[in-house]
Amino acid sequence: MSEYKAKSAEAPEEQRPGKVKQIIGAVVDVDFTADLPKIYDALRVKMSDGSILVLEVQQHTGSNTVRCVAMDATDGLVSGTVMGTRGAMCFSIDSLIV
After folding, report:
1. One digit per residue, pLDDT tens: the chain, 98 residues?
2. d(CA 84, CA 52)
3. Which residue in 95, 75, 81 sits closest to 19, CA to CA?
4. What is the b/e burial string over 24-44, where b = at least 16 CB atoms within 10 angstroms of the residue's CB?
5. SS3 sequence, the chain?
6. What was the pLDDT predicted at 35?
C-alpha cells in the first residue's frame, strides 16, 4: 500500500509544471525540473486576467529549458510564472486541408 502512495504522489508527466524563465516578445523560455515536453507540444499558462495562453514548444535549448512561441499576446506574463498543463501537439485547421 505504501508503494501505491509513493507512486501517486508524483504528478503525471503532463501535469509536471515548468516555470517561465524569460519572455522576449512572443518568444518564451520555460524551465522544467523533469522530462522536457516534445517539440510542437502545447503548454498552457493561466494569465493574471484568468485567460489561458498557449505556448508551442519550438526548441530544446539545453539545461532543462525549452523555447516556445506564444499563440497570443504575452502582455502580463512574468518570469517565474508556473506553467499549467502540457497538452498535445499544436496544429492549425489549414494543415489538415489536403
Report:
1. 444 333 333 444 455 679 999 999 999 999 998 888 989 899 999 888 889 999 999 999 988 999 999 999 999 999 999 886 666 666 554 444 44
2. 9
3. 81
4. eeeebbbbbeeebbeeebbbe
5. CHHHHHHHHCCCHHHCCEEEEEEECCEEEEEECCCCCCCCEEEEEECCCCCEEEEEEEEEEECCEEEEEECCCCCCCCCCCECCCEEEECCCHHHHCC
6. 85
CB-based contact 37:86 (threshold 8 Å): yes
CB contact at 8 A, 44 and 81 = no
CA distance 47 to 43: 13
Joined grid coordinates for residue 5:
502512495
